[in-house]
Amino acid sequence: MSDLLTRARKVIPNGVFGHRRSFVFVDGNNNAIPDDYPHFVRQASGCNFTDANGHRYIDYVCGYGAMLVGFANERVDVAATRQINQGLCYSFPSELEVGLAERLVAREQAASWAAFSLNGTDAISVAITTARAATGREGIAVAANAYHGTLGSTSLGPGRVQAERTATRTVRWGCIDSLTETLHAEAVAAVVLCPFEQLVGRPNTMPPEGYWRQVRQACDATGTVLILDDVRSGCRLHPLGSSSAFGIEPDLVCQSKAMANGYPIAATLGTERFRDAAQEIFVSGTFWGFAPALAAALATLDILDEHDGIAHMAAMGRRLTDGLRDLAQSHGFQLNISGPAALPMVLFEDDPQSKLAMEFARHIARSGSLVHPSHNWFLTLAHQQEDIDQTLQHAATAFSKMRQ
Ligand SMILES: Cc1ncc(COP(=O)(O)O)c(C=O)c1O
Fold it and tell me: Which of 67, 47, 35 is nearest to 391 (CA)?
């Protein structure tokens, strides 16, 4: 065990707390993070990072999707630094906030307002509170096992009490009958759904034909607010957001992760119908509307648009997944690759516990690429063909090692 991990385990729960415990998702045991998988980062740039032991990796975890145009992107960092030099955390909005709201509203088809917070959980919380204020109802519906952040009403696990979820109903993602039945059985304020099903360790499921149109109809028929959780996939599927990629007509949309290339920011966007409710509720956070992150978001969106980033990430994702599929097959493995090319879910067939995926992640890390065994991978504008081809070489070594 590294010295740093020994020190960390004395003063930090698990040594590596929260979201960053990459391997914990596989079997719930932090000790499962193998020693040859990086624990601590020293430095990162482009699509590479160097761990505390000096090993360099081509990264596909990318801050769980927060990295969009590459680590230490000069243009984004200059924009943020310029803002830092003008002071932090004013408790008053700046022109940047208005500018970014205008920009986001123009990018999300039906939206007419945007409210900023700090992370995806905040954006979901703002949306649910708005929906409850607008409808006067308490309940919410979510898809079974979906992750929408760490709110008590949407989370499960140790330390979470059922009382926090008494107003939460679950539906089967992608099953319109399940949703319609639930919404008609009992009035709820909102249904919170991701644009496609994106569960940890499971193949991503794309919406069945006509699903989103029927979801809209079911919400309209029951007065339910449709909240789209675009936290993970936002900025990666369509210049106008995942709602445009899938033809979704949400009432409220939650964005975060990629929009400021790693600077902490989230936005809840809404249609005109929900402006009054958003104006009535009191929701706030000391650091919400953090000006350097607002500046970083504007620069990130400029780069995304100028470089046709959506098409680039999809092309790089296809090159990677096509190559991986072929390599796996030639080594006698069958991959199960699902989800959009820009954030693929790469699993192995007949591997319900993700054991093979874990072994692969460990071996490919040793060769120099960092992938997640049970979560979506992420492409960025910084990943170029040479990086993908190098990763495919790392993958060939990993598959060979696994065969041995
Ligand atoms: C789909 C989805 N919603 C919400 C969240 C919560 O975002 P955050 O971790 O910024 O609170 C996440 C984070 O991984 C996510 O993937």
Answer: 47
How far apart are alpha carbons 213 and 26 in whole angstroms?
35
- Could you tell me which of 256, 346, 309, 267 has the C-alpha nearest to residue 63? 256
Q: For a pocket test of ligand 1, which of 126, 257, 375 has the largest count of ligand atoms closer than 8 A to its C-beta?
A: 257
Q: What is the pTM of this model?
A: 0.96
202 C-alpha to center of ligand 1: Å? Answer: 17
| Nearest CA residue ID for atom 5, ligand 1 | 149
For residue 342, which of 307, 312, 379, 374 has the smallest C-alpha distance? 379
Q: What is the pLDDT of residues 79-137, one digit of tens each?
A: 999 999 998 888 889 999 999 999 999 999 999 999 999 999 999 999 999 999 999 99
Q: In what order do the strands lie in the sheet with 113-117?
A: 113-117, 266-270, 252-255, 225-229, 190-193, 140-143, 168-171
Q: Which residues line ligand 1 (CB under 6 A)?
A: 64, 119-121, 124, 147-149, 194, 229, 231-232, 256
Whether residue 277 has pLDDT greater than 90: yes
